[in-house]
Amino acid sequence: MAAICILLLFSGFPAVNNRYSAFRKRQGTIGETEGDGRYASRQSSTTKMTSFDKHLLERGFTAEQTGKMSLLGKWLLAPEGTPPPGSNTENRSYLILIWKHGPYLERRHIRRFTMNKFSPWDRCSARNCTLTYDEKDLHRADAVVFHLHLTKSPSELPVRSRADQRWIFLTDESPFQTFMYGRQKLSDYDGLFNWSMSYRMDSDVPVPYGRTVRIPDDISNDDVGHWDTVMRTIKTKLVAVMGSNCGDHNGRWSYVKTLKSLLGNDLDIFGRCLEGNRTVCPGHFDRDCVVLNAYKFYLSFENSNCREYLTEKVFWNAYSKLAVPIIMGASRYDCQRLLPPHSFLHVDDFASADALADYLRYLDRDNKRYISYHEWRDRYRLINEHGYFGSASKHYCRVCEALHYNSIAPKVYARLEDFWSKKDCTLVSV
């Protein structure tokens, strides 16, 4: 009955999905805005060159890339201490509905893989939001978050009754793992979502696994000098890798196998892949693997080589452990923009696994040269935000912030693959 009412209210609009015909026409496509001067004015104010843009350009982003980022995304990469963008509304509260999978996602985003519950608004710059899992709140919600990885088909999505709701698709996986169920196509979801929510910084609601932000010269870093002392004391082993997913789209485990044959006992493998040690680091995301503290390097090998795909393997297993990440996943260009200078190694810099192994042994002998890969720690702050190993998850906070800071101009992803696609990944034959 609700669907019939929507069609009656907005009859005459072409339908892509019989439940969403009215909404698509009202919202337009990505980049389109209504003729209302309020939208045009606000869009103009958010796309002009700002201090956020200036910093991003200095960091290596292009003008085109910064133009595609939301205000929230720009602010998340701004130097430490930068005030958040001004709110687009005053004295407004928001209701955020997590569709169907709220209780399951709570383990990570509320409990942080512990038995405790944490407020999603803890240290959040915008707090006047309420979270609900109750589908009866659909008609009241200002934003509805849909976890694509767990969604079995578009039929699981509800009938839409409000054109002003923000429908947000969430994925923390690479485009190769967008869907867990069935042989679904992204095009099945064309015209349904207003905002994207992923690890990529050009998402409307960016939720990266971690960030590194510049510390301005006039702000002291309490960690200066601390890392050097600790490192010289505890770094007794060369390189480690940990993994429970033995599949990949980039040949990472074949590369690890080759490295193991070259490095022998200088490369330790934890987890169930390549007959690794399964007892030293039990648990999956709920308990930290303290043995990683002893290693100088960590193989931050993702399961896919996709745009900006950098996970806890970089931010927790490497940076937080005072190790240098050796990255396979996001391109070197992405890493240069998103990570501190001279803070990582990338497999693309080496002609072969033999060349990488030789360089690791060289750095192991030259302590001064190795230490140079940590000097960034004096001027950058590391922030883990993935919810694993007890770290904070900022997913729901980011939705609240996006509702406050992002443009209110209507928007819809009419062709989802224009934004999220396997075309942003590379397949590697090893």
Automatic annotation (TrEMBL):
A single GO CC term for this protein reads: Golgi cisterna membrane
**Record keywords: Membrane included?**
yes
Q: Which residue positions does the secretion signal occupy?
A: 1-18
Molecular function (GO) terms for this protein are: calcium ion binding; fucosyltransferase activity
Enzyme Commission identifier(s): 2.4.1.-
The protein's matches in InterPro entries, at most eight in alphabetical order, are given as: EF_hand_dom (IPR002048), Glyco_tran_10_C (IPR055270), Glyco_tran_10_N (IPR031481), Glyco_trans_10 (IPR001503), GT10-like_C_sf (IPR038577)
> Pfam families, per this entry?
Glyco_tran_10_N, Glyco_transf_10
Q: What class of enzyme is it?
A: transferase
Q: In which pathway does it act?
A: Protein modification; protein glycosylation
All copies of the EF-hand domain together span 351-386
Q: Where this protein primarily resides, as one coarse class?
A: Golgi
* Top-level taxon of the source organism: Eukaryota
What are the protein's UniProt keywords? Glycoprotein, Glycosyltransferase, Golgi apparatus, Membrane, Signal, Signal-anchor, Transferase, Transmembrane, Transmembrane helix
Q: Where in the cell is it found?
A: Golgi apparatus, Golgi stack membrane
Give the way it sits in the membrane.
Single-pass type II membrane protein
Q: Does the keyword Glycoprotein apply?
A: yes
Family of this protein:
Belongs to the glycosyltransferase 10 family.
Q: What is this protein called?
A: Fucosyltransferase
According to the entry, what is the taxonomic lineage of the organism?
A: Eukaryota, Metazoa, Ecdysozoa, Arthropoda, Hexapoda
